[in-house]
């Protein structure tokens, strides 16, 4: 269960980073 949550959190972080990169680019 913790592993699943960690994976979802990582995916969320990647989406957030993609949004920030989209704003900066």
TrEMBL record:
<protein>
    <submittedName>
        <fullName>Uncharacterized protein</fullName>
    </submittedName>
</protein>
